[in-house]
Amino acid sequence: MSNYSVPKKVNESANRPCKVSALFALIFVLSSFLMANKPVVAQTLSLEQALQLAIQYDPLLKGNAHRKDRFNAEAEASSYWANPQVSASIQNLPTDGFAFDQEPMTQFKVGLKQQLPRGDENLYSQQKYQVMADQMSVESQARKAWLKREVTLTWLDWVYATRRIGLLDKEKSLLTQLLDFTDSRYSQGVGAAAQQDILQVRLALLSLDDKYVQAYQQKNEARSALSKWFGAPLDESVSAPLTQSTRDAIEVDAILNDSNLSLSSFLTVIENSEPFSILQHHPEAMLLQIQTQIEAQNVNIAREQTKSQWAFEASYGYRQDAQNGASRADFVSLGVQVDLPFFNKSRQDASIAAAASKMSASETDFRLKVNELAANAEVLKSRLSALSERKALYETALIGETRQLSEAELTAYTTDTGDIGDVVNANLKQVQVQDDLLKIDIERARTLASLAYLYLPTHAHFSNKE
Predict the structure, then answer these.
(1) pLDDT tens-digit series, residues 226-267
(2) How is residue 280 annotated by DSSP?
(3) CB 47 within 8 A of CB 248
């Protein structure tokens, strides 16, 4: 069966048309992954599938596409002059007879007026909207990177809780076998087995129930948090991927899927990159750079307000011949209008100063953002190094040592030279070490996801330049 799942429809009558259409679209996409003529079994949702669905159905990405179209249209519209104005009037019509040919001053006048832009205001406005359209593209890149990180972190929480339940099942199986073994020795009167040995094992089983409750709570919360990225709850048949290999279950490579980088190549990129330089090209920082460009255009527009605005007009006046048949000449008028912004110089200087200060503030925000991203990258690199060392320690030493300890304690107890408490603790320690290793693997994957959020967009930026 496919690893995809069909989310359930949300029962909200107010949003039913939108929800239903989204659900049918989701079903159509997921159906392509289903394998025919196979019985229905528990389905799994891989990290790669979760990332694809989250990006495909993200409302903000769709909204950014519409906003980009809007700014492109605004840029085109701002390049045109204001509409010309046409006027028509009858002038100097005598009131004693209202005859058009009675007085020589009477005329029918048609005029045309065209107002010009103030300096290069239209040009700067057009450039401003073009930059804002580019900003939407960068914002979409930032949103995709952010979505991948957040979905990955939520998915990892779900996988951890699910796999921890599997470890608890293993712990329960060990304790159950130990209880049967102890009960058998006690009933047969073998060695020094006592009733308190049975009670100790039963107490360990009872404490296990509380761990189950916590694990299922974490699983359900992570599952609910994951479903918000798809716009509908996950189907009950969906489960997290579970394999014997922790690395396969975590699917670290899916984090790097769009970068064409292997894990080792990605780690090399991280180690060889100077974060304070490379992270200047991160989408979060580039958004502030673009905002500075927008503010720079606002400064230019404010400066254009200090220039005069011109308007040209022309009119034609028609006069009817006199009542006695004498011919009367028509009139043509030409005119120029200009406003005088010099009287408001103080106000205009203040507007320019305000726009310039806003641009400078955006430049400062950019530097602060780069420093924040770079510092975060250094922390994550240090954390990844420590987690890798801990992972190696657990895999090469602790797992083997706890297994040997468990076997030795059980052998000592069967030969009446050990205590049942030591046997229980040794078995619990063995499962605890596996749980700690799982936590390390999950935290390592979370750290890689956060590093991917920082470095992959910048890597794509330099790759595109090449």
Answers:
(1) 888 887 788 877 888 765 444 444 666 677 776 677 888 888
(2) G
(3) no
CA distance 63 to 140: 10
Integer Cα distance of 107 and 392 in angstroms: 100
b/e per residue, 254-278, with b = 16+ CB within 10 A?
bbbeebebeeeebbebbeebebeeb
pLDDT band at 4 (very low <50, low <70, confident <90, very high): very low
Check if the beta carbon of residue 233 is closer than 8 Å to that of residue 7.
Answer: yes
Whole-number Cα distances in Å, 258 to 137, 148, 262 = 17, 11, 11
For residue 405, give the nearest of 383, 432, 373, 374 by alpha carbon: 432
Strands (E), 302-439: 310-318, 331-338
State the DSSP H helix or E strand holding residue 342, giving kind and residue range, or none if neither.
none
Q: What are phi and psi of 237, to 5 degrees?
A: -80, -5
Measured CA to CA, the distance from residue 211 to residue 225 in angstroms comes to 21
Q: What stretches of 62-146 adopt beta strand conformation (E)?
A: 85-91, 107-115
Chain segment 37-96, per-residue pLDDT in tens: 333 334 888 888 889 889 998 999 999 999 999 999 999 999 999 999 999 999 999 988
